[in-house]
Prior knowledge:
The chain has eight helices and 14 strands. The protein is an alpha+beta fold. It folds into two domains: 147 residues, Fructose-1,6-Bisphosphatase, Chain A, domain 1 (2-Layer Sandwich); 108 residues, D-Maltodextrin-Binding Protein, domain 2 (3-Layer(aba) Sandwich), CATH 3.40.190. Helix 1 packs antiparallel against helix 2.
Amino acid sequence: xxxxxxxxxxxxxxxxxxxxxxxxxxxxxxxxxxxxxxxxxxxxxxxxxxxxxxxxxxxxxxxxxxxxxxxxxxxxxxxxxxxxxxxxxxxxxxxxxxxxxxxxxxxxxxxxxxxxxxxxxxxxxxxxxxxxxxxxxxxxxxxxxxxxxxxxxxxxxxxxxxxxxxxxxxxxxxxxxxxxxxxxxxxxxxxxxxxxxxxxxxxxxxxxxxxxxxxxxxxxxxxxxxxxxxxxxxxxxxxxxxxxxxxxxxxxxxxxxxxxxxxxxxxxxxxxxxxxxxxxxxxx
Length: 284
């Protein structure tokens, strides 16, 4: 199957699974269909689990010899994550990115799928079922949303940078200190919503950048390729590209253009955490 046909077939699968397994449960969840994983802000629903189960089967059928790294599969068996370092093509799946807004009945959630091989992102699919938005990208072929080619462009001169960053509910005291450098003149920071939708906003030029300090590949893979193929740039605090398998120097950024990414990286490097600085649990 050539790349164009694969992009089309995956898009069809993502739309179909969202229509069958996610949307019918939106605003219809029973109490027993929502459970916690690591804490009260880390939720999983029957929609997450069923959508990932069905998507996994369909994606493996589309590309024989591939493997799937899905958020819920990794939660059940953390060794699954190691497939990101293997030789086989890897589908990276977040069935419901933004589970909290999904549970609350809000529209800010999406389904994310990415395809990578030997650490390089090849394809990206982002679907917001509640609003109908659908974006995709393929390495070297551009990024598109609802059929229109995306061009991230550059921030308007003289205007503060609009930057979404890791939500305080999911950050430790150490991470909060690292992100505090964004509270400065020329930057207008705000807590992020669903990561996939934040990346899409950057690719569409509606937001100037994101800054995240967690590495889960399912949150970032689809969005990183989408932003790059829209003409944007990404890098970790050390200036290296984000590695899907982890061990990145975080925080990292994805921005509308290289100049914006470099500006934010320079700002992030101004924070130096003493090696013996106290940290603590993630706090709301």
